[in-house]
User: Fold this.
Amino acid sequence: MRYYVTIGKGDTAERRCVWFETDANGVTVAHVSSFEGEVVEDGRKTFEVDGRRVGAGAALHMLVDAGSHDFAIENGTDGRELVWRGERLAIDVVDERELLARRVAGHAAAGPRDVRASMPGIVVSVEVEVGAEVAAGQTLVVVEAMKMQNPITAEAAGVVCAIHVKPGQAVAAGDALLRLE
Assistant:
C-alpha cells in the first residue's frame, strides 16, 4: 500500500509518496518518491527504517539509515500535527484509496480545495463566477456524461477562487473543475 504524505500547508508544503517493503534479508526499507508533479532527483529514494512507538503510543522513535529520529503525531488546532525537533507542522497522511476518493469527490477539509469531475464527460455549464460565495450542496458545474446532465455540487460552503474549465470542454474523472477557499 502506498501512503501520500503532506507536511506543512500552502505553497511550502512537502508532498511525498511512501511505501514499505521487506528485503531478502528481512530488513524493512521505505521508498520515498514525489507525487502531484513534484520531481525527486532519481525518481525515488530508498531508506532502511525501523520504528517503535514510545510510551502510550503518541511518540515514535525511528532509525532511518542509522540516523535516530524522535517525533510525535498530535491533534492540533487545525488538524493533525507532526512534532519534530521542537517544531509543529501540519501533516496529512492518506492511503492510495483515500487519495483517489479525494481527487474524484473533492476534499472538504478547511483551506483551498479543488472540486473535481466525478466522471468523464463534457462541461455543459459553469454555474458560478470567481469570487462567488457558494453554499454546501449548491450546483457549481454541470457535466454531461452518457447523454445525462450531472450537477457537480459544493461539498461545503466557500468562495470560488479559480475556474479551470469552460462550457464545451471535455474532462476526465478526477480533473479539477474549479477551486474553492
Q: What stands out?
A: The CA atoms of residues 78 and 105 lie 22 Å apart. Confidence is low (pLDDT under 50) at residues 37-41. The chain has one helix and 16 strands. The helical segments are 96-105.
